[in-house]
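input
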Amino acid sequence: MTLFEVVQSHPEMIRHIQESVYSALKVYASSEIVPKAHYLQSHAAAVEVTVIGMLELTRRDTTSVLAIGFSHEVFVAIYENMFKEKLIDVSLETADLAGELINIIFQSVDPELRKLGYLFEASLPKVLTQSPRHEWVQISVEQSLILPFSTGTGDILFEIFETKG
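output
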């Protein structure tokens, strides 16, 4: 079973994931965020995402992807709140923050998955930056579960989808 299927069959996981994203960003990035209604989508929304942190989660012969996407403005605001310094340029080095955040979020979600009997092996975090959104979406095979959050500078998208293989 993929993470996407686990979340669909255990709706309480959606609330836990939302709380994990909220807690990580609220605590680690000193940012005010507001959860918005989650939705299923067969393709990604037409929004600007310039920094993506993602983890591949494997279980048996399936791979799930957990990803968090930021617009340029939101990423800069979170980075500056977290490190208390001005961000001049979003580079792969500074974008590593998105990878660390997705890892922190998964570490909070993982114990809940284990309680349900699901053990996923996580990859090292991967970061994509300055990539057109459509390149990232090509990873998605069917539909995604999107958990959006709003901030003072823009939306954050937390997405769960599966890949085959």
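quick obs: Confidence is low (pLDDT under 50) at residues 131-141.
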